[in-house]
Amino acid sequence: xxxxxxxxxxxxxxxxxxxxxxxxxxxxxxxxxxxxxxxxxxxxxxxxxxxxxxxxxxxxxxxxxxxxxxxxxxxxxxxxxxxxxxxxxxxxxxxxxxxxxxxxxxxxxxxxxxxxxxxxxxxxxxxxxxxxxxxxxxxxxxxxxxxxxxxxxxxxxxxxxxxxxxxxxxxxxxxxxxxxxxxxxxxxxxxxxxxxxxxxxxxxxxxxxxxxxxxxxxxxxxxxxxxxxxxxxxxxxxxxxxxxxxxxxxxxxxxxxxxxxxxxxxxxxxxxxxxxxxxxxxxxxxxxxxxxxxxxxxxxxxxxxxxxxxxxxxxxxxxxxxxxxxxxxxxxxxxxxxxxxxxxxxxxxxxxxxxxxxxxxxxxxxxxxxxxxxxxxxxxxxxxxxxxxxxxxxxxxxxxxxxxxxxxxxxxxxxxxxxxxxxxxxxxxxxxxxxxxxxxxxxxxxxxxxxxxxxxxxxxxxxxxxxxxxxxxxxxxxxxxxxxxxxxxxxxxxxxxxxxxxxxxxxxxxxxxxxxxxxxxxxxxxxxxxxxxxxxxxxx
Amino acid sequence: xxxxxxxxxxxxxxxxxxxxxxxxxxxxxxxxxxxxxxxxxxxxxxxxxxxxxxxxxxxxxxxxxxxxxxxxxxxxxxxxxxxxxxxxxxxxxxxxxxxxxxxxxxxxxxxxxxxxxxxxxx
Lengths: 540, 122
What we know:
Chain A is an alpha+beta fold and 540 residues long.
């Protein structure tokens, strides 16, 4: 071979060599491009704020691609809503079913360095690794496991060395993962840790947000159910924010503006100063604001509102003197309660009035009875009878809610205590209802007439009879009730030597009270009492 | 100033038994009863024109307040007292501070109140 020839061979070799080196460089470049792309995808996936599962999947897929692994897995701990910790995993290069029947990896000699965060385990042939097959009961991979020879595992730990999980890669051939692959996986593990932490923080934040939303919904439901409005006032700017129900408490619709000046203007002029003073006091002392006031709503109606609130400093640091920045509270329409209270107050006043009047009536009865009585025993008998007569009319009125009583029932009730009721005749076209005052007055009148008849008149003998008759005389204004008590067939009647309580009550008292005329006629055949009373004074 | 003897007292009271009691008490005290009026129109008529020195007014006259009668008496310069189961609580604002006879009352209470009214009579 000549020098030229030798040179030619050498040149050819060199060309071949250059071509080989070029091909190698191109392959390395392509590798680099692929890795860069893989890293970009991982970074994009991490940056996309996906769920924990999606982030983990992006990391495994990226890892498999970066180091040319056949299988990739990521086992990691999660905490559920109940606070229970359990392990999940993501896979690449194998369907999830490939692991479905295996228990979660335990901290065996092989896995311990990864789960304890000690460091990377890289093996060209895991079956030849001294740490492999040391643990009962399986002493190696379980039956049906993916055929792994090349093995690369890295712990995923946070900057605080908290182990989040482990990244595992495998290949069915030996010697597939070199030192470069190890470096890549360490980098990937660091990225995965950041991504998982961020994802967890995001999920925790989301959980907190969901919980806060639920709490707010519960609060709103409670407020709505109780028809409670809520409001907030910025003490400095006087900006006032009222909920829809709060606005409705002041007669405003949800879409109407309702600021602090509107609030103050709506409050009844008599209550306004008191309300502003209470608010100032709460702001000054940082104490509670609790007030009931009247509001005059736009329709002109006056309603009652109960407002409660509390002054609060904006930040938690206590500021001395004028540190209150805002007030928040609730408002409730208490008009119905106020009206009920007013009704109750009136009712109580009315009851008190009635009781006091009854006491005076009894006092009067005692005094009148005493003036006419011949001794204590007679007093007692007459007084008790009158007391019971009064009580009978009260019973009738109570049955009818103290509104009215029927004239027929009044007469019946008063005569119940007397013998010989079968000797009583009634003559009337229709029954009448009388107001409470007329009921008591006519009840007492009938009692006095019956007492007199039983003692001296028609009811004192077996033959005597009494007719109670009434009619309404509409022909002459005012319309009058003519009520007569007529005794006959009794003992011969003579006018009494002195006018007793009964006569006085009938002729003067009853006539005066009911604005009518009452006449007692001592006819020989029997006493006749004729009452002519204007119907207007009797009707309920 | 007058004494109770022959003092002409207008009585406005709508319940017969109560006005009978008041009449008897006033009689015992030597006063002369004008009325009793049981309704507001009659009470107003007497308050405006009857010859009276003083008046005793039931606050509630069959559900109608007595205050127009009180105003008429005030205009005439006739001293008066309210008789009420409510006490002073039953009075409207312009009449708070007026003499009040709380029901039920004793003759001695009525005498004290009337003496107060008689002292105002010129």
